[in-house]
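=== RUN LOG ===
request id: a7f3
mode: sequence -> structure
chains: 1
length: 128
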Amino acid sequence: QVQVTESGGGSVEAGGSLRLSCTASGNMPSDWCMAWFRQAQGQDREAIAAVDWDGRIKYANSVKGRFSISQDDAKKTTYLEMTSLKPEDSRTYYCAADSDACTVWVGHSVSPDAMDVWGQGTLVSVSA
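=== RESULT ===
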């Protein structure tokens, strides 16, 4: 059974940077799509970045130019490098994996059944 686990969240001042990691365990095929989502309390979960198995990447307008998604296949880890952080970036960030294309979700709010596997989330707090 495939599982994904996020790490790297924390508190940072506005303008600062953080790198989130998402490590997969279990028998994950090489053709899975990986995506990062974020959610504020009481709001929908938004897809902000995704990378398909063929390397195609997509970003939501809200993070384009500031966030970068990358993968280390040997470590089964997907990263989200976040720079120029703003207070409005303060959310819980989730990593998820899917056996189908997932870049289609980027920029949209999704329900939990949009992806096959979800992590437990990691909190990012950006102070002004």
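=== NOTES ===
The chain has a mean pLDDT of 93.
The chain is about 0% helix and 50% strand.
=== END ===
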